[in-house]
């Protein structure tokens, strides 16, 4: 099967008052259908710029991006691209447009010109899918941050995307909201086979990814399975990034001369390793 996202040597420059600043620098990345990719990187490394390029909010100044074989520079495909690759942002309040939950979720499919019966069905399915169906008649501003973010996700799912790009969707949430949203994202990937591109600065959210991509200065500087990436503790620290808590603990214990595997990511793995 072909890749859902193909990023072919893209660069992106913001130009402000004749000052050019390169936010993406000859970046290449292909993403397979059904893959769960987590992107990490220090502030200013270009993650949001990349996500906006994937959604055709920005267009590469050099190189090409294909979403489902559609070039993001082809304006005639703009809505097909945004329907195939939906996007969820950091602040749920900026994404909710209606005063009732179910109307908010209906907004996307209405804009796609979908028939009312079908919209009704999709709104119901999408709200059930994020566990927010019982709130369908509620006012969004009365919901918690995690609930609002799940409504925003339902609004995207209602457009039946193949891929969803999440740009730090948990950054403004409390720990329980963060868990709600992460469980929803994982379920969409595992049960509905939606391709996920998840940008985060919480390393624990990267542990279950199929692949982690590390960005720095508009380039990919490291990528691989979580165990392959998090083994580079020193390199990640130099890039200003954390590692999962268990990885940090392993790193410190090994420095003290304790004989244990170096690729531990979770509490379960730590327990197994220490009790063996
Ligand atoms: P991240 O999401 O990883 O924090 P961004 O993609 O937001 O990084 O930013 C990448 C670089 O582009 C940074 O140097 C940032 O200052 C710059 N940048 C981001 N948005 C703009 C903008 N609207 N105008 C000019 N420069 C920008
Ligand atoms: Mg950002």
From TrEMBL:
Keywords: ATP-binding, Cell membrane, Membrane, Nucleotide-binding, Translocase, Transport
Membrane topology of the entry: Peripheral membrane protein
Residue ranges of domain ABC transporter in the record: 5-242
Matching SMART domains: AAA (SM00382)
PROSITE patterns in the cross-refs: ABC_TRANSPORTER_1, ABC_TRANSPORTER_2
InterPro entries: AAA+_ATPase, ABC_transporter-like_ATP-bd, ABC_transporter-like_CS, ABC_transpr_CbiO/EcfA_su, ECF_ABC_transporter_ATP-bd, EcfA_1, P-loop_NTPase
Family note: Belongs to the ABC transporter superfamily.
Protein name stated in the entry: Energy-coupling factor transporter ATPase
Organism per entry: Tepidibacter hydrothermalis
């Amino acid at each position: 099967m072909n890749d859902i996202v193909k990023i072919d040597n893209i660069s992106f420059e913001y130009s402000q008052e004749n000052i050019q600043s390169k936010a993406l620098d000859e970046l290449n990345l292909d993403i397979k259908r059904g893959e769960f990719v987590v992107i990490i990187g220090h502030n200013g490394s270009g993650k949001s710029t990349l996500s906006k390029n994937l959604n055709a909010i920005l267009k590469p100044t050099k190189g090409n991006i294909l979403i489902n074989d559609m070039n993001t520079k082809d304006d005639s495909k703009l809505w097909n691209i945004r329907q195939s690759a939906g996007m969820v942002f950091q602040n749920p309040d900026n994404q909710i447009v209606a005063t009732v939950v179910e109307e908010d979720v209906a907004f996307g499919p209405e804009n796609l010109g979908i028939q009312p019966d079908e919209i009704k069905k999709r709104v119901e399915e999408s709200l059930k899918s994020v566990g927010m169906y019982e709130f369908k008649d509620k006012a969004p501003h009365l919901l918690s941050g995690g609930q609002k973010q799940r409504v925003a996700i339902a609004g995207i799912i209602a457009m039946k995307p193949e891929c969803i790009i999440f740009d730090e969707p948990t950054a403004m949430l409390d720990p329980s909201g963060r868990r709600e949203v992460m469980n929803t994202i994982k379920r969409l990937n595992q049960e509905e086979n939606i391709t996920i591109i998840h940008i985060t600065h919480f390393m624990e959210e990267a542990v279950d990814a199929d692949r982690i991509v590390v960005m720095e200065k508009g380039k990919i500087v490291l990528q691989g399975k979580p165990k392959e990436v998090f083994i580079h503790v020193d390199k990640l620290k130099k890039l200003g990034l954390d590692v999962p808590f268990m990885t940090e603990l392993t790193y410190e214990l090994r420095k003290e001369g304790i004989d244990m595997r170096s690729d531990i990511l979770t509490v379960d793995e730590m327990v197994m390793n220490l009790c063996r």
